[in-house]
Amino acid sequence: MLLAPAITDLEQLKNHPAVARLVGWNAEAITGVKFDRDEMTIYIDRAYIREACVLLKDDPACPFNFLSDVTCVDWYPAEPRFEVVYHLLSIPNKERIRLKVRLNSASPAVESLTSVWPGANYFEREVFDLFGVRFTGHPYLRRILMPEDWEGHPLRKDYPVEGYR
Amino acid sequence: MAHLNPTPVLEPGQDRTMILNMGPQHPSTHGVLRVLLEIDGETVVRMMPDIGFLHTGIEKTCEAKFYQQVVPLTDRIDYLCPMTNNLCYVLAVEKLLGLEIPPKAQWLRVLLNELTRINSHLVWLGTHAMDIGALTVFLYCFREREEILKIFEMVSGQRMMTSYFRVGGIALEPPLGFFDRVRDFAGYFPERIDQYENLLTGNPIWTMRTKGVARMTAEDAIALGATGPTLRGSGVDFDLRRDMPYSSYEKFQFKVPVSQEGDVFARYMCRVQELRESTEIVRQALDGMPEGPIKADAPGIVLPDREKMKTQMESLIYHFKIITEGFAVPAGEVYQAVESPRGEMGYYIVSDGTAKPYRVHMRSACFANLQSLPKMCEGRLLADVVAAIGSIDIVLGEIDR
Questions:
Q1: Spatial distance between the Cα atoms of B315 and B305, rounded to a whole number of angstroms
Q2: Is A76 near chain B, with CB under 8 Å?
Q3: pLDDT at B122 over 90
Q4: Where are the domains of chain A?
Q5: Which residues pair with B338 in a beta bridge?
Q6: Are B73 and B65 in contact (CB under 8 A)?
Q7: Which of A17, A42, B264, B275 stands the most exposed, by the fewest C-beta atoms within 10 Å?
């Protein structure tokens, strides 16, 4: 089976319900789209991520009512360095969508989703713990997996696999 | 990190409350879960789980391994359902590669996954019942679990850390007598489930300890990211095997048990009925097992047969190259989720086109389910905390990774 090339043109993808809804709301919020391996990715400007999630969650036709996962990818040394990745699931429509926010290394901070889904709490703490990305408005942003007095953020690419000696 | 306190502290709210520390060595916390409880007499006012004691940095380790070397790491995340983790990982890599898997391998994967689910639910049932005080059930459950572990040993050479699935198929053809042994097991197992239910379902002590305890509504369950029996126990009819099928699950007929009450008993009923449904899927997989190869035809990705290596030069070269250099995976990213015994197990893999994954993230079902624990316990009795922890079926290896 050959892989189809990824579609990154917004014009071709604007009929996707989630894209259509976001474009209709605020075209500035979308900084890019990608359709690859049957998975839809929408890049959101970091100022709008919480509002975009509220919008997608309350969509009457296709409510993305479940937050599956929040994680992060470090593209060190490239800038913008961090990509915070959100996986949303629509339980009634059985569909998934991926939202991404790009953050530069100078101020890796993005608005917390805990007010939309309380379940974002642990996931965001994990991203903060392992990547050092801050979530503004999070009720309890502390390390969750590493010890409280740990130095550094282990999943960053400039952190050695064997740790600092 | 000057802005952080040295340890998580729960300040007592009023003079009449006290802080109680539970775990990480408490026998009913199923491993190394630590829970901080603010209690007013016997009533839990606030609760805070504290995790991370088993964190081994598996996600970081994956970034330093070839794709095929990650498979044994995935067993160790959730040591009660190794095959589910194997499956989720290999499905994600196969999706990245665009590989087509032969039907026999897919059906064998389904068969082994359902046996894994039975295995995991048996450990849960035994330990959960033991936490609440029904000690006998544990012995019965482990009797049947032993047989499943022997089946795993037969097929993979390992009782728990099976690492049996490979990118592109499965490792070996199952040995002679394997299917008969599984059929035997599927034959007598429903009767054994009746035995467990005789001990528990109608038992007045069991129902008093579980009915109406640790309730959670469907809205709360969705908002808190709960999946699996924790979600279905609250009345949300969602199962990835049926609703977003993978690995030929769409070819199997099975019911998805749902309970409406949202209490410990509802989650118990969901899992016990899942035991029956899983046995049914195992039987269907045995009856309809297709013939054919167990590995995809993808030289350079799938290891060649041992016999061919002795006679064909190309096979020997491919074998050498896969072992020493791995195989390159086209750049991209995928999120693959499967229904593990505990809920949605998801792998998010980012490839940069090399032979090592750029990023592997495991979406752990327990990690999200654990967040619903305070919701279940706050305002209820201290003794119910133990029942609630058992009812969400946590495995700390999966939470801490």
A1: 8
A2: no
A3: yes
A4: 10-108
A5: B345
A6: yes
A7: A17
Measure CA B326 to chain center. Answer: 28
Are A73 and B363 an interchain contact pair (Cβ–Cβ within 8 Å)?
A: no
Residues B294-303 have a mean pLDDT of 87
Peptide bond before residue B190 is cis, with ω within 30 degrees of 0: no
SS3 category, A19: helix
From A127, which residue of chain B is nearest by alpha-carbon distance? B361
CA quadruple A9, A14, A18, A20: dihedral positive or negative? positive
ipTM: 0.92
Q: Which H or E run contains B62?
A: helix B58-62
Highest mean pLDDT among A16-20, B138-142, B397-401: B138-142
E-only strand ranges, B62-194: 165-166, 169-170
How far does CA B45 lie from the centroid of its chain?
31
Distance CA A56, CA A71 (A): 19
Chain A neighbours among B 123-162 (CB < 8 Å)? Answer: none
Question: Is A155 in contact with B344 (Cβ distance < 8 A)?
Answer: no
Determine how β-strand B332-340 pairs with β-strand B34-40: unpaired
The superfamily CATH assigns to domain B68-348+360-393 is Cytochrome-c3 Hydrogenase, chain B (1.10.645.10)
SS3 B384: helix
Domain layout of chain B by residue ranges: 68-348+360-393
Quick one: DSSP state of residue B372? G
Let me know: does A22 contact A52? Beta carbons within 8 Å: yes
pTM above 0.80, yes or no: yes
DSSP conformation class of B102: P
pLDDT of B114 reads 92
Q: Which residue of A has its CA nearest to B52?
A: A145
Residue B219 pLDDT > 60: yes
B299 backbone dihedrals φ, ψ, rounded to 5°: -60, 140
Mean pLDDT value of segment B104-114: 92
Cα separation, A137 vs A110, whole angstroms: 9
- Quote the CA–CA distance of B320 and B343 in Å, as a whole number: 38
Q: How far apart are CA A132 and CA A155, in angstroms?
A: 9
Q: Which fold has domain A10-108?
A: Beta Polymerase; domain 2 (3.30.460)
